[in-house]
Every structure is written in C-alpha cells, then in structure tokens.
Design goal:
- With about 250 residues, the protein is of the alpha/beta class.
- It has a single domain, classed as 3-Layer(aba) Sandwich (Rossmann fold).
- It is built from seven helices and eight strands.
- It has an eight-stranded mixed β-sheet with strand order 3-2-1-4-5-6-7-8, sandwiched between helices.
- α2 crosses α7 and α4 packs parallel to α5.
- It is globular, with a radius of gyration of 17 Å.
C-alpha cells in the first residue's frame, strides 16, 4: 500500500472531533434535535435526518455550523440507500449513527386487541428503520475501523416494566430493537465499532407529552454513548451514562 493510500485509511480514532460526521434520525424536533445540537457543539459535522426536509432545514439553521438537513424516512429503503450513497460521496465516512426516529406510542391500546396494522407500523419505524440504516451505513464505519451506533429505546421495553398495561406495539418494537442491538454488538465486537442502546427516560417531547424530564438531560445520555472513547462499552443498555438491566 502506497503512502497516500495509507493516509487515506488512517484510523478515525486518531482524527479530531471536528472531522467526525454524525447522522441523527428524526432530528428536526424534540430529542433528536437536541442530540444534533449537542453533537454540533462538540465539533461534529451533523446530518439531521428529517421526513419533512423544510422542517429539517429550519432545525439545521437553528443549530448552525456544520449542521445539514437530509431527507430521511426510515421506513423508505430506497431513500436510505440514496442517503448512504450521498454520505459516501460527500463525506467518505460516517462516524456516528443515532437511530432516534420513532413513534407509534399506542398508550391506550391493549395487547389483546391491538391490530396487526398497528404492530406492523411500530416495527417498521422503531425496529426495521434502525436495522436498515445500520445495514446501509456500517460499511462506511468499517472502512475506518471506527463507529458509534446508538439505538434510542425505552424503559417500557425492559424486563422490569414489560408487565405494564398500554403501549403494546411500542413496547414490542422497542424490545425487538434491544435484541437487535445486542446481536449487532456481538457481531462488530473488536472492529472499532460500538453499538449500544440508550433509554433517555420520560421526556417532555411531542412523543412523551407534558410531565416528562428535560430534553437536554435525555439527549446528554445519547450523546455520551455516541462519543464513547476507546475502549468503550459495547452491547449495553445505558441511561445517564450507567448500565441498566435489559
């Protein structure tokens, strides 16, 4: 390998944060916006994934700096493939992926009567969206032997709370996301890529509703996992920087 090629594949761990690129899904508002803002404040070039590009651009303008909005519906496989190609073409790398986009909080539903359509919709966004993005973007991380993948999950999907009532489709989809996180973490172990799930807690967002905690604190938990140093924890469920039980 010639000298120029060696420089081109220098391990990303040696690069300053200013050169790191992060993609945050569902980033035009709420938790995703605050995660993007905090990453940008750390010097990351942040891509704000948004289904509504106009709102994404407004959010990116609020953040300023290296923040750029990109069109992204995590249930659209073609759009995911197009975004992956664009990131490779424009940046040649991706260092952080925060799978924050989520929804289908079916609070009043019951497992006994929840429709297959409702469950399918929750799985498409909360599980398969993250799965497809990881599949499309992991090659960019493997190229430089560095990556941080953070899957935003929920405490209502953990073993301590799965006996609760309500949110059946949401619970199942997030529990499945937890299982996927652990499976992927085992596969990438030792590659320089760390995969973890973060429970940000109940937050006062559009999804969480009033009464939740400050978005800034929940986002800080996500950002901490996105910026883990080497060697870092892999395959864990984290909250406020601490491991909690699956």
């Amino acid at each position: 390998m010639n000298t120029a090629r060696k420089r081109a594949v220098t391990d990303a761990a040696a690069l300053p944060p200013l050169h790191r690129v992060a993609l945050v899904t569902g980033a035009n508002r709420g938790l995703g916006f605050e995660v993007a803002r905090q990453l940008a404040a750390r010097g990351y070039s942040v891509l704000l994934g948004a289904r509504d590009l106009a709102r994404g651009r407004h959010a990116a303008k609020q953040i300023g700096g290296e923040a750029v909005a990109v069109p992204l519906d995590v249930t659209d496989a073609r759009q995911i493939a197009e975004l992956a190609a664009w990131i490779e073409r424009e940046h040649g790398r991706l260092d952080v992926l925060v799978n924050n986009a989520g929804g289908h909080a079916d609070r009043e539903a019951r497992a006994e009567t929840a429709t297959p359509e409702s469950v399918r919709a929750a799985l498409e966004t909360n599980l398969l969206g993250a799965w497809q993005l990881c599949r499309a973007l992991l090659p960019l991380m493997r190229r430089h032997r560095y990556g941080r993948i953070v899957n935003v999950t929920s405490g209502c999907a953990t073993s301590a709370t799965t006996d609760g009532i309500g949110y059946p489709a949401y619970r199942v989809s997030k529990a499945a996301l937890n299982a996927y996180t652990r499976a992927l973490a085992v596969e990438v172990a030792g590659s320089g890529i760390l995969v973890n799930a973060v429970c940000p807690g109940w937050l006062a967002t559009g999804l969480g509703g009033p009464g939740g905690g400050p978005v800034e604190r929940g986002a800080a938990s996500v950002v901490a996992a996105a910026c883990l140093p080497e060697p870092g924890v892999n395959g864990a469920l984290l909250r406020d920087g601490q491991r909690i039980a699956w």
